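Worked example

This section walks through a single chain of length 482. The input is the sequence exactly as stored; nothing has been trimmed or padded.
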Amino acid sequence: MVMKHPKLFIAGKWCETERSMPVVNPYDNSLIAEVPIAGARETGRAIDSARTGAEIMRAMPAHSRARILARTAELIEKHIDDFTGLIIAEAGKPRKYARIEVTRAIETVRLSSEEAKRIAGETVPMDAAPGSEKRRGFYIRVPVGVIAAITPFNFPLNLVVHKVAPAIAAGNAVILKPASKTPLTALYLAEILLDAGLPPEALNVLIGPGNTVGTALVRSRDVGMVTFTGSAGVGELLGRDCGIKKLTLELGSNSGAIVDETANLDKALERCLIGAFAYSGQVCNHTQRLIVQKDIASDFINRFLLATSRLVLGDPQQAETDIGPLIDATAQKKAQEFVDDARAGGAELLCGGRAEKTIFLPTVLSQVRPEMAVVCEETFAPIVSVETFGDFSEAIDRFNRGARSGRYRYGISAGVFTRDINRAWRAIEELDVANVYINDSATFRVDLQPYGGVKESGIGREGPRFAIEEMTEIRMVSFNLD
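Given that input, the structure is written out below as tokens.
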């Protein structure tokens, strides 16, 4: 799919700028489009427009916001093939995963539409406080105003709607800065939102470098909230820049799965294979660590390697493809460095470990240690490290040590495969992560759940209901009847 003349959407109009940048297909490096780059002037116009949009959205009744989002979901579904094609082209995501992303995005928008009608406060028992017997109180939720949404390349539709749709549901205006690698899907979504009836001032879409456009948005005092998904390093810088405003960060991780000797190995194998290699590991809750009980380790690893060897590598356009390209040459170089560093430290390469053209081969390493970068850092590549354990206490300790041994103390998710309910509860209580999935891999998410990380994996939660809580302010009201 080629978009001939994409434009930015600023102040209610599609516009070009003096500079542009290429968007290329990660699989064959072919040119998809040239997109305009926003500068300081365009960013300022977008902020001014969003201030007007915030007033329009604040006055819009909940049923109107819900109707716009419901219509948006219908239109995305109508154009599901177009969205799928764009995601394949600009993100290099295999067709099977691109299609799933679009269907998930439709669900996310529908959930947001439903939640728009359920934004409510509650009464406060003022007479519980001595001296306030004659007072009656309640609180309501009001929109933040202008929200800057900064999104990553790996889910160019679903992670965009996870920010934009709840913001609209809550009555906010949005300035969207999609990843420079994958801006076309977001621009197409903007067209859909406008066709669905969203006021033009309520949405601005800017494309440009994070250190210019992103920084200007984050520092602006007219922006009431920043919601960002990306690496922990960028999130750390963004947190320093944003000043006193609301902030949601969904950052990196080194998630993994524990497999004990009571587990259903067929289920564990199936789920861990997907968790390890879906979209070439370019997922924030990528199952990059497998911690396997030593008595079953040999059998499980051999079966895992056999299943890995059967994955189909190649053109993401093809329906049968499991593994496509990494997003760019920089990502490929970083993946190779992870593997080389691990091998130099004594890790054993069981398969993969190199690139073929733009595709990094599915890679499995054993004999790793928690302090190795391939374990304690975020690989964001089709690389899996395997550790073994004796008793279950050691498994939990290994997982937690790996999550705090690197530069960042990560904590998004852990999978635990076990038939022992006591071990399951121990894992729930002792694993230092935000999401624990029993008998599933770490790479799991339904779009209505509260999703995010702890420690340096993030602040706040996404999922329409929970994002709306982040994107609104509590306004307390008290009546003095005395």
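What to look for: The mean pLDDT is 97.
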